[in-house]
Amino acid sequence: DVLRASYSIRVRPEAGYFGLAGGALDSGGGAPGAVEAPSAFPMGLDIRLKAPLMPFIETRNWTVIGSADVEVRGTIDRPIITGRVDLDRGEGMFSGYRYRLQSGSIDFSNPLKFDPFFDVSATTRVQSTGQTYNISLRLSGTLSTLDPQIISEPWLPEFQVVSLLFGETPD
For residues 46 and 152, what is the distance between their CA atoms, to the nearest angstrom? Predict the structure, then answer.
């Protein structure tokens, strides 16, 4: 569902409709004096997505509620995405356990490349051999530097917590 959308053509008279080709966008990257190849599809983007708290994911197994303030600029083949998605709450099932999203965010802060930074925390409860374990999971970092952290109460080594989450016993 689209709550609200707007579009307006922004044309610089000296450049015309396809004036973003050939370096009209300053990416700020590359060596000084280097010429960036022209865009293969030079249609410019100027999109702002502002979403209030709303369901972002609604499936049979998962529901995630959040808000967003994201801008998409650049060209179709070289989009520049900046902004933030805040994950307010959610829950879902994985491997037989219910996970509750505690907090989360996805930051698009690098205008030179698509490299979102994730910071998401969730909890679940696992019972095994008469013991209940409260497990906290946190993922933080970019896709290439994602750092998972898994903690249980009562404490278990991380490899045993992972075993618990996949239905094994902690020993």
Answer: 45
User: What long-range pairs does 96-101 form, CB within 8 A, spacing at least 24?
Assistant: 96/167, 97/124, 97/125, 97/126, 97/165, 98/124, 98/125, 99/123, 99/124, 99/137, 100/124, 101/64
Q: CA-CA distances (angstroms) from residue 72 to 36, 65, 80?
A: 20, 22, 6
Tokens 């529901």: give the residue.
63
What pLDDT band is residue 91 in, cutting at 50, 70 and 90?
A: very high
Four-residue CA torsion sign, 12, 17, 23, 28: positive
C-alpha closest to that of 49 among 25, 66, 62, 63: 66
Measured distance CA(111)–CA(109) in Å, rounded: 6
Quick: pLDDT tens for 49-70. Answer: 999 999 988 999 999 999 999 9
CB 155 within 8 A of CB 87: no
Placement of tokens 């702002």 in the chain: 48
Residue 165 amino acid letter: L
